[in-house]
Amino acid sequence: MSVTVPPSPLTDAVLPRLTTIYARAADPERAAQMRAYMKDVAPFLGLSSPARRELSRAVLAGTPRPEEADCTALALRCWRLPEREYHYFAVDCLRRHVRRCSSDFLPVARHLVTTVPWWDTVDLLAAHVVGGLVAADPALRADLDAWIEDDDLWVARTALLHQLRYKDATDTGRLFGYCVRQSGHPDFFIRKAIGWCLREYAKTDPDAVRDFVAKERSRLSPLSVREALKNIGA
């Protein structure tokens, strides 16, 4: 599904401030190191996380709370900028304001997950944005049931990780079912995600995770099993 950038006077005001303030603080030497660490997924400005958060406060000073159209426009326009820190800025804004977004935002989230994808943005979008949207509208679970089968590994990873923060509200049928459905996936990022979502849920119900791993161990990769049982033992 294609997504379009809606009109947003707020974004029109924020983007010039963002690009000016961030670019002024760029550190080319650190940028090269960050780009190498992130496997050359995108160029960087070289801003540390604490520095970036401080700069973001200056960018947003005096601005009103965004509406859904503002969240959409800001995210999509930031994603068009090459340097990764602009994507981080958008993710931070979405995490803060996901409750301002309706179920209609899910296609935008999918676009972000599948555009310049890497774990640094995908995982936060999964747990904080997609997870927040599904928690607010359980009807979206049907969409995630399709995502878990998607050929794009980042979409499938998002489905696996979207319940990371749910704790007692976790839909265990979907959690375990998604893990089984992707248990044979050859990619590291899917196998790691299976182990991670199980390990996180083990903080809530360790016995359920132990029982699941014992039942499905032959299907799960050693990496998934190791990660799932990391804090609770066999």
Q: Shape, please?
A: globular
Q: Radius of gyration from the CA trace? A: 19 Å
CATH architecture classification name of the largest domain: Alpha Horseshoe
Q: Helix and strand string, N-terminal first? A: HHHHHHHHHHHHH
Biggest pleated-sheet summary:
none
Work out the helix count.
13
Short description:
The chain is 64% helix and 0% strand. It is mainly alpha-helical.
Topology record:
Layout: H1 9-24, H2 28-37, H3 49-60, H4 68-79, H5 84-97, H6 106-114, H7 119-136, H8 141-147, H9 153-161, H10 172-181, H11 188-202, H12 206-216, H13 222-228
Written description of the protein model:
The protein is mainly alpha-helical. It has two domains: 8-101, Leucine-rich Repeat Variant (Alpha Horseshoe); 139-234, Leucine-rich Repeat Variant (Alpha Horseshoe), CATH 1.25.10. Helices cover 64% and strands 0% of the residues. The protein contains 13 helices and no strands. It has helices at 9-24, 28-37, 49-60, 68-79, 84-97, 106-114, 119-136, 141-147, 153-161, 172-181, 188-202, 206-216, 222-228. Helix 4 packs antiparallel against helix 5. The N and C termini lie far apart (43 Å).
Keywords:
single chain; 234 residues; Leucine-rich Repeat Variant; 2 domains; 13 helices; 64% helix
